[in-house]
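Q: Structure for this?
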Amino acid sequence: MSLDRRALEAKGYLVVPGFVDLHAHLREPGFEDSETIATGAKAALRGGFTTVCAMPNTEPAIDSPGLVAELIARGRSADAARVLPIAAITRGRKGRELADLVELAAAGAVAFSDDGSPVEDARLFRSALEYARVTGRPVIEHPQDLALSAKGVMHEGAVSARLGLPGMPAAAEETAVARDIALAKMTGGRLHLTHLSTAGSVELVRRAKAEGAAITCDVTPHHLAMTDDWVAGSRAFAWEVPDEALQGVPYDSSTKVNPPLRGHADVRALWAGIADGTVDAIATDHAPHSSVKKDVEFDQAAFGISGLETALALVLGGVRVHWAALGAVIDALTIGPARVLGIELADDDWVAIDRNAEWLVTADELVSKGKNTPILGRTVIGRVVHVSRGGEAKLPERRVGNAEAVGRR
Amino acid sequence: MGFHRTYTSDSATTFNDRSCEAGKERQTTTLLSRDDVRRAITRIAHEIVERDRDLSALAIVGIRARGDALAARIQRAIRANEGVDVPLGAIDITLYRDDLTRIGYAPIVRESEIPFSVDGRVVVLVDDVLFTGRTIRAAMDALVDYGRPQAIRLAVLVDRGHRELPIRADFVGKNVPTAAGDDVRVHLAEVDGRDEVEVVAKVPA
Amino acid sequence: MKWSRRHVLDTDDWSRDEIETVLDQTRAMIEILQRPIRRAPPLRGRTVILFFAEASTRTRVSFELAAKALSADVTNITASGSSVEKGESLYDTVRTLQALGGDVVVMRHASSGAPYFVAERTDAAVINAGDGWHAHPTQGLLDAYTLRDALGDLNGKRIVIVGDVLHSRVARSDMNTLLPLGARVTLSGPPTLIPTAWRCGQLPPGVTYESDLDKALDGADAVIALRLQRERQESGLLPSLREYSRVWGLTADRVGRMRPGAPVMHPGPMNEGVEIDAAVAHGSRSVIEKQVTNGVAVRMALLYLLAATQPLEERP
């Protein structure tokens, strides 16, 4: 095995530990037309993630030990990336009563979350943070003030003003982040804030950490690469100069995501957070949707971007323009999330990356059932060429062959 | 004999859109000089008056764009000679063309102006060049949407033959036989800064 | 200039040239509407489909008159009683539209962006008759025409747009046609009804926000009043309609602050007594009825530009 590694390195590939995704939606049980544990776990491997955490907003929600066990079993039989279950904080994710957190942890849950909803009731969230301390598992909160962001479908700013779409202001995330931080400090609970998207949120976490709070956070690859201009049709990454050639049709529902794509200053602040360690992890928030849910009017479309397989290419773009060091980004994909979960990185989980491989993102190229990504049709740079999980070489085939070779395996 | 690129300066009234024919030699001949043009207009004005003695029933409608300038001159000539102000109008026939789907773009429609009733009038349509007759057909279709003239007559500065429809002019400035591929260019002071009619012809092999 | 747009989905990026071309064509179309026989033949044999998923009488009828004035056949797909009401998805409606094979689809829809969705999926030319809060391009053009008719050259003229700008596709489209013609725009209205970005200074060049309507109207060259919907009070954006009409309603006094002869406009339908006094709506400065006539002519101009010269053999 180490022979393989050295051989791959000799070819110029970057060999690093297998990535750990803190936040993915595998849709099973309940929404198997959008993704299954099997297809999601395979997509994770193709993206370089040897471990993927499955969010519990399924149907039924993962709020009982039996369901946790079932998820683990299905993950095992998928025989692809390691699937770690995240259990719900509240019963049914309804935000009214705590779930049996200790039993859920005992059954194998690695964290708790009610994602894609926040726990609105502050008193209940306080209880969750306090009670979960016994389990040693982090509470992952989706920070969003539902009232301030009600009916919003994109970032509230100059672009939403022009496009005539109701917006979700940055303050809707930042007020929730502030609340969550205050509760974490008060309770000593283990809080992890997921998919932060605004400069203000990053700054709040930075200050909280400076004061010694045990808070962690992650950002998504799409928030590191795209801005709200994408809703207006731009297809220029944050580090690219806008160009006529990089222009698509506005109101493309593949740009609709929660939290929404924000402004340039927010993107730069997220990268600064990675560079200075404020941001602990990069997590994909992989949100696959069948076309039925996305091929509709923008305001009716489901939120979410399918991101497992394109994550690496997106984050390498920022590294290329020196917005953060390669090491910081790799740490955010490996050591960072492992620390958040309190797990060890397995020695025989590793990936080889071709940093210069160009590939065209097409629906056929993606193994995930979710083809909802706004970079369909774009050529991106950076690709996983070899995956070793538990010592076995495990890079799954693409569904339908693309004429260009992926890279030498 | 120089190399001339053909182009149409205003396609709203001519059906002679032709693209540049590089390399073909072309010869430009003057058909009507400035004085010829003016004499022709004067003569047409006289003929109109001779034909329809009852000037009170007359009206003159020029087809945009150049026919309307000619129509105005004819109306002025009649006023100068007879002291009568014949009602003057201008009609744009773009929306009545039969070739809109064949020319590859949408020509600009201009405003028609017929500030009088055409019912019961003898309307003299005026155009610069009579060629296939399709412009006149379109003009008549447009005109009858304004009412029911007693009669419609046609005055043209140049009749160059090659009719594709059964249309004939009542008053003609000059009859000029041309080849179908020739380009007849009418210049009028109001539009082009000078009065002249030219023919641009292919040099015979 | 040669017309090159396949669709009219918005006026966000129209050049001055394009806008003036449409306005010039509009004048020609107005003349046709004044003839004894108000009809011309360029769209003979063509079908215009009116797909109004959001109820509207005046705009739909205006488009219908425009299409018929150019001899087109008209088919209506309206919200009430159609499968749209029964929950048919936009995707399925688009497939039906494609199968019907119209030359032009004129559509109004409650979702911003819906016309782009449709334009991407049919062969017909699409004209946006209003999508959510985003755009109402024909209104923008007819308002520009009406103003140009009343004021002449719009260079340097200052137009006030007052009301619920946040939710107004008319305001957005008016800005997009007036600014390229050289006009300046002053937006006015309650701070809660202006997009935050615009209230805080991120405005296009030539546009300002002035919450004090009296100040805004001082010396203005024209005013466009927007309709205020009653729901805005219910959703906590306004304390009351009464206060709104006191502070931002167009009264005769307020209107008198503008330049002499400055016209008063409103896209309709009006809430008399709320955003505009009855006396002002029917007063000497009001050109609201002209807006309606001009609307038919503008729509004729666009239908001609989009459909009259498309080769018949290539139709779906």
